[in-house]
Amino acid sequence: MSKNIFPKISLKIFLEAVLVLFTVGMAFYFQWEIANAIFFILFVLFLLHPISSRFPAGGAIILLVATAALLVAKKEDWAETSAIWAYYLMIFTATMAFFELHEEKDGVIINKN
Amino acid sequence: MFKKKKMQNNFGKKLINILKINKRIFLVVAFLGLVFVINQALYANHKKTTEACASGKCLSTVAEKPQLTKDNGYYYVDDIFKDQPSGYYRVTFLEKSDSAMPVLMDLNTYTEKESQIAELNLVPSDKFQPQEVFFYLSDGFDSLLFQKKDPNSAGNIFIKAVGITKLNATSQAELVAMKKTLVGETNLEAVTASQTDSDYAFPWLKDSKTILGQVFQAKDSVISAVSLKIDINKNLNSGSRQYTLSLRKVNYDGESVSYDGAVIVDTAFSFSSIEKYRQADGTFLFPLFGMLEKNQYYLISLDNSKVDVSKQNYLELKGSKEDKYSAGIAVVKKGKEMYPIDGDLYFKIYGAQLLQEGGMKIFNGAKIEDLGKGSGRYSYATEGKFVDLFDLSGASAGTEFSESDKIIYAPAKDNASFSYAVNMLYPISKLNFSASQVKAGWKKVKVSYSFDQNDWVDLPFSAGSELATTAIEADNGESVDGSSSDTSEAQDSLAVADNTVPVVTEESVQVFDADIVPTKEARTVYFKITYDPSDTSKGKSFALKNLKITAELKLK
After folding, report:
1. What is the pLDDT of residue B170?
2. ipTM score here?
3. What is the pTM of this model?
4. Contact B328, B252 (CB under 8 A)
């Protein structure tokens, strides 16, 4: 009876859900700031389901430009935050690019368009 | 039972199968494990309380080493008499001993020829004591030797500021009649307001963008430092952003507090740099120089607005949960709103008391000596230490001491100036003022003197040169003058980028070296130092370095 209440989910999805929950739990456990926690959770999600490296790369470029603009506007604190976020996105880009290269070698080309 | 085991085997096989196909899950597990282990070490909270740091356990500064110890019973002041003519001399110095001990003073040469000039019986003291010894210097000696009478005794003796003065005396009898040398010493340890209960930790600075402070009533016209008890909560990733400790005048009516004036003085520190203010008893002593109005109310406050506060990285100011200080209250400011809170912070406000002689203040380290035959000598030089600030008789807002350049400086704006009232106790025959502009890139300085504070005369200066380190970019040869900036943040003029090479160049600076002869009897001379408003350079501050004032005095 009870088996029918829960939708049948595959073991893979179940494992991924556990990992994401564990990631969220870690963010709470270590009391990370909200922005850092979001970047960390996104990173884990993108490790499980890669996206095209172009998207984080674009975000990183925008944030780097914003950093320069904020420095000119003498908003050093914001500039520092923006630079840190740009750095996070560059890590995303490098990781996604690595996956793309790896999958190309395996004969699979990711096309997330 | 068998069925259950079979199901478990099926699940295990399925899991291994999925992991084989989905290598990314493996990757994520490994990544999360790594992050967890690193963070467990990095983000563990390390609490450092004032109590745990008592008895000097957390001191980061290296203690001053004694000159005479159990292992080293000899201290030479080399070449102090080199090229000095024979005659009667006075040697002055400061000593501090941790036990009662006889010390011998000898004239000495490199050939180890010795001639004893005095035996001093030192008394134990926490403070440096001035000493002076008269002696006749015969030919053939060049050094001064301090030695323990009993070389095996265990006491530690500190000796500093050894100086000699040639006297006009021609006989031993004249030495007996000599007036005792007066050496100015500024006491920075006098507490002018305090609240010392500290059984409660104020939690307010756990929240970001918060100011926590204490209102106090000034009992002195100057503040030299504030002592606070702070518990530090930090993990290994506490960051480098800075807390701001500031002092400002407030309107306080016994209940509510408000301020509209600017900050009188502030200082900033991060989680790592705060330790340089740690004292042996575990408290923190922050040097702050500011002119106060007696009986007015001031707020000393700590602002965490620029710091990334988290539940593991925050400061707790200690104090009492009950109101123990009657002349002020503790306050919290969040956003634009400031409100009083129960209790009072632990705090000690320190003033500065210059040595007073005949109702006149004597500068720290200034020396008034009897040379014999009715003449005397006044000498004062800035020490390049924070205590120099308290020799100022007046200073405009923003006047501060630069630890990196070891000078007093002020922002070159409006009517900014700082001044000295130099009391010499005896009528002045002639005096000399010497100093130089701190750096070529700084605003030019104008120095005026007066004997009555009405008629001011500008001191002349000459153009001197000094060596300055300039950074030249190695790849294109374009020069970047590292010494031109005069903000306190950019005072490290020797810091050059990796792709530059330092080049030493000569720069023109103002040099003041003027003799002044008073036209009528004067015992006090006033100096006013300001910037030259006609200087259109981009310098933002002005300052003098190597300031020295000497005078010939009439003692009879």
Report:
1. 86
2. 0.81
3. 0.69
4. yes
